[in-house]
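Submission sheet (multi-component)
Chains listed below:
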Amino acid sequence: MPVIQVKNKSVHIQELNKGARETVVLVHGMFSNLSVYYFNIAPVLAQSFHVLMYDMKSHGMSERCEYGYDLLSMTDDLRDLLDALHLKSVYLAGYSYGGLVAMKMAMRYPSRVKKLAVIEAPDPSDNETLSIIDIYSKEFLVDYINNYTDTTRMRMGKRQLDKNHRMYEYLFYETSIKEDMHNERFFFADDAIGNIAHDTLLIYGKSSNCLPSGRKLYHTVPRSKMTLIEGDHNLPIQQPLETANKLKDFFVGWQVKFKQINHKLWQALRLSYHH
Amino acid sequence: MDAITTQHKLSNEEIFTILKSFITEVIGEEFVEDMDISRESSFTRDLEMDSIEIVSFSEKVKSHFGENIDFTGWLSSMDLDQLINLKLDHIINYIETCQSSK
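Outcome: structure written.
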């Protein structure tokens, strides 16, 4: 299991296609882990890129941490991880709260990000997650999981329910996550969002309750384009291949497509010359 | 566990035993004691493994059976329903096929 030390903390990472020249980094959302990308999305991207996934602190198999769930700390973590792996500049994608981390990274360290993809990032000011944190209970978790089960067809048994409950209890009652997330509620009002100079792809579900947040970003981030996929907020689970292909096409970009067209033209010219 | 260094092809039963030990390492002996792990056990329904546990299990398979077995690639060819219904037997057969095609 690849667990590396980054600033004296254990971070669980997964990498695919390590030899590739360019790197895509995938940031998962709060209360999730890197498995949201591991099975379907990362392998598609790995056809063209070195892909790096990591578990955020206290998530998945990374070390628990009492503090630092605000976007400044989360982007410090990401910068430290890139430094540890000697990655100067990467294609960056984030899902849900990870989308906010990816945006903040582009704002704070623009030279470390080549292109930015934001999947289903919520506006923290009207984010249901904040109310979830306030009313959390085990009964709530059961309801939440039943809904998740309905929309993703994933089932959860007693051991998983207990495991999730322990994670939520730790995060909500023994860390600063509530306060840190609450303090990010004005993030969409940050003028710096309007200064993101990167090519930015916004991927949202057609029936997602985060869609209005996506539209706000589309009007604020200058070089953004928006693409909609059938599904709700659980898009990467519901439509992994379509999400992966949108990301891949965006990151590969027109430069490579131009080369491919050139190559085809060249082949056609050669063929016509030989005839 | 270290990667296999010999060319010895493992039997179906040997692969099953190794995979059972990986499952025990991933979900913990205290939970495995109450389970009857069989070839027909499905990862999500019977073993109640979540996706990060299946990631961990996949890593063990890759590191034990070597990079020649494209386990992640094989998993990625499955849709969600296939992943949910994935049984131990499917993986044993996949590893056996990879061994015999070498």
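Remark: Chain A touches chain B at residues 1-2, 14, 16, 33-36, 38-40, 42-44, 55, 60-61, 152-160, 163, 237, 240 (CB under 8 Å).
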